[in-house]
Fold:
Amino acid sequence: MSEMTSPLGRVVATERRPNTPHEFHFWTALDCPVGIGTIVRVEGTHPVEGKLPQVYGIVVEGFGYTDLQSPLHDVLGHDGSPESASLAPTERAEIRLYTAAVLRQIPEEPLQPVPIGRVFLATDDDVAVALRMDGYLKEGARTGIPIGIYRAGGTDAPIYLDADFLLGPEAAHLNITGVSGLATKTSAVEWLLQSIFTHFPERKGTIAAVCFNVKGPDLCFLDQPGELEASDRAIYEKLGVPAKPFDRVEYFAPYDSDGITIKTLRSHDALAHNVHPLTWGLREVLQYAEVLLNKDDVDAKADALIDFIRERVVDQDFTDPLLSRPHRVQSFADLEQWFRDVLRGVEAKNQESWRTHHVATIRKVRNRLSNISTRCAGLVTDDGAVSDLPFGTFEDRTVYVIDVAGSEEDAQDLIFARVVTKLRELLEKRQLGVDHVIVFVDELNKYAPNDGQDTYVRKMLLDISERGRYLGLVLFGAQQFRSQVHRRVVGNAGSALYGRMDGDELATPGYAVLSPATRTKLATLEKGQLMVRHPHFTQPVFVRFPRPAVMRGRDGAERFPQAQGVPFDQAILRSLRVLDPAITLQWVQDVAGIHEEHEVVRARNATIRARPGNVREFFRNALPKRAPSVAVPPRQPAPALRLTPFDDPYGDGQ
Amino acid sequence: MFAAFLDGVQQSRILDYANGAPIVHATVAAVIRERRERRLHTWKHQVENRIYAPRRHVPPDVWARLAHLDPADSSLPDDDERLTTRHPLGALERAVDLAQRHREALEQRLAQDWCERESRPLLVDGGISGSERVARAPCAIGVVKSHRTLYAVDEQIEVVLRLARGERTSVFLIEPPRRTPVASWYLRLREPAGRDPMFALVRVEVARDPVQDIGARADEVSRWLLAETAPLALPDARWDRMVYGVRDSEEFLRAIT
Structure:
């Protein structure tokens, strides 16, 4: 205890290196447990307006030197032999001098240069005061979300983020940067989500997370327990977060291009219970056609025709004197029929335009829209079948993972745009089912780059960044190179986490505010260490966080290998078994055997969407009706002809 | 091996002139820096301040105003019973001389403290004959760096000046007036080739012990001193004769005075 209360250093100031209100210098003993990122407290000795000043600072730079004026003197002193240096009876006087950035001064006014005084290692309470956490850790008004442990010289202080500034409404959004492969970005988000789900105050409402799995099996096993070491469990215990996987996780992924199997690395039978297909029809896609159609595709004329189709054609009985028959367009297949009829009519009458739309525009839009179901096969269905996220019935503390890792880029963009826009719309109307949604997007530099042409997805991310916090829509974005993400996206992230950084990235202007020592530390951070920036922290703070209590993607992929080359009947069985585990392969083969594959797939999709009580009956009814096969009774043999009498004169005589 | 190093410093400045007589403020300090695990730590240090004024030459009211500072009279006769001159520079020299004596006394007090409590070797920067207790203590070793007086005559001088690195003279006895006799020898700490004759030349003083083999003692202490040639005491101008422990003591005193 006495060690904790004894000073570890003393503030110094010289004319060449003076102290300021935001920075000070202090020296310590050589064996002092101070390093870059250590939080210290300075006790002033002269009262200011009756109060002894207390200054809290974080070490941002360190210097060490001896009384040696020139390295040559040391060489001469040891006859050029490094070995003889160890024989010298005395070591030179050596200093450890540190520069600290001020975190907080008490009293806060008048703001003066840091006084000369004794320097102490910050205790848990000091850390809370230094980082202004005391303001949001008050009993009854607690909004702290644990992010990790600050560790220095025997101090193990929990670090909390303010939920009001992490999830809105004061500030919001989180950005995570770090090199790949060091368990920084994904692990940090998994840990933080668990922490948020545990500590987000109930009075603030309900919260859920939508995570886009953009690569490999990263987020595919969030409901499976991971391996934790004792040190990890200690951090979980200290921060009051249960060391267990997420209780409620739902997975969504488009079908493969064959429309039979779901395109995800979480395809093992044992994990199929919460994996759902993600398929959209014409109506859903048309709302976001501009995501898939770039500016070269869609000019004002084409845009007008798309609007016309959206407003006047889809899901309505459409008639026109030009057309051969009434149309009701509900799927891409219907739309294709409609286009054909329109173009046939135009050509038959030798018209150049129809309803102000030029025939060339009609052909162009037909070409682009028809193309979508091919480009996004597996996600977009020709028949208009929809299987979607449970918009409107989102549940509290639930993670919804959308696995787009195996999807084409166009499909990824479409999924991203539609899901986020839908979340935004429903949150605005308070009809989503929860009050707050965290959207986690990895590879943000791909979706919101700071250069290149403006895309719908980037515009949407900017919109979330700038206005999402008022709606409860919070963006947790991650990327390897923060400098390559749009400035307004990262700039609007109230909080930021930094894992180990690449040297080239650290050399970009965005990191110029950090001291050289802090940048060096960032370039050499261990696994499980983060630098945290948060609106309440006047300087970045280094913390340790535990491994997430969920199974790592790589481990999960080994333990639950992906189902490979599943036969058609087997694939149907897997889908239906999620709804009724008693269904057998024999039953599927008996029921579906006489039907075409596309008919079976359609029936399967309808069953999954409906989730009926009696799965077998529903599935059977969803198949097209065929005349029942009836066994033909064996024909009775014709009675034998009577034999010709022996004496018949017309017989052959035999 | 030396366990500690003793050194002292003095600073003086003229506060004012009264009737042309300088009133001098002097600060003297001394320290013993003990070596523990190859690093030097303060064993004990003392700092004292004193005002020097020639009482005979300053007006009585000025002396009265200085009285609460307990000034030392720099107009008293010196050891040779010579009165100080009325010349301001002469009076100033006398004040500085008194401050130097004060510093020596302080160093001796610290050395005595060490010798009373410790038996480990103490390197004293300068001679040790000024204090009888120190001069007779086997733990005190004085190292003299200045050679205004050479304790040699005729061909002995040549022997001293031609000492090579690591060589010493034979031990001789020094019996200064009003001081305690000590055994002494010259030692060359570094290679002098191409340098001035006094380069890296020190004179060592130890207690005279009739029982001890003084030659063996001189060899032992000389080895200790040669071991102290690293690290260098640069950038001090006397680095060739100064051991690092003494420089460290001076730096310490410079920092606190």
About this structure: Residues 88-117 of chain B form the longest helix (30 residues). Strands of chain B lie at 4-18, 21-36, 39-53, 72-73, 122-125, 140-144, 172-174, 182-188, 201-207.
